Amino acid sequence: MSTTDHATAAAPTSPAPTSPQSQDREAQDREPAGPASFAVRIPDAELEPEPLDPEQIVSGAPEVTGKVLWESADGKQIRGIWQITPGVVTDTEADELFVVVSGRTTIDVAGGDTLEVGPGDACVLRAGDRTTWTVHETLRKAYHISL
């Protein structure tokens, strides 16, 4: 740091006056993406295909579909609906809370518990958990992921 930079950094400063237009822009930058409040009927929501990495498939021919309902402006919070057909897949998890709407699966957490989840169950997965999902019946869930 040069002497000039140090002197500038140490000098007390007062906030620069802002115009109403710049205040409006600042407020818009803080607003979350998408609608503030909404409702979705999860069992009937139309989902779009999401590619599944073939290396994740252990057995069967599972197909994944989903729909992002909301994402924070910084992309670190995501809420949506996700569905997978029967089969066995592996994954490395993000921090996630989900509620199963329909279907059943067994989630084996490496070095941890085996979770049996079905309709109405809430499940929390930790970032970094290595999991194996055995999907017994097509599983549909509503989720919130923190990246």
Residue stretches low in confidence (pLDDT < 50, at least 5 long) are 1-18, 22-28
Largest sheet: 9 strands, antiparallel
Structure class: mainly beta
User: Beta-strand level of the residues, as a percent range?
Assistant: over 45%
The percentage helix is 10-25%
- Distance from N terminus to C terminus (CA atoms, Å) equals 34 Å
Radius of gyration: 22 Å
Order of helices and strands: HHEEEEEEEEE
Number of helices in the DSSP assignment: 2
Averaging pLDDT over every residue, what do you get? 85
Form type: globular
| Number of strand elements | 9
What does this structure look like?
With 147 residues, the protein is mainly β. It is built from two helices and nine strands; from the N terminus they run H-H-E-E-E-E-E-E-E-E-E.
Short description:
By secondary structure, the protein is mostly beta strands. It has helices at residues 3-10, 20-30; strands at residues 48-50, 57-59, 64-71, 77-84, 87-92, 95-109, 114-117, 122-125, 130-146.
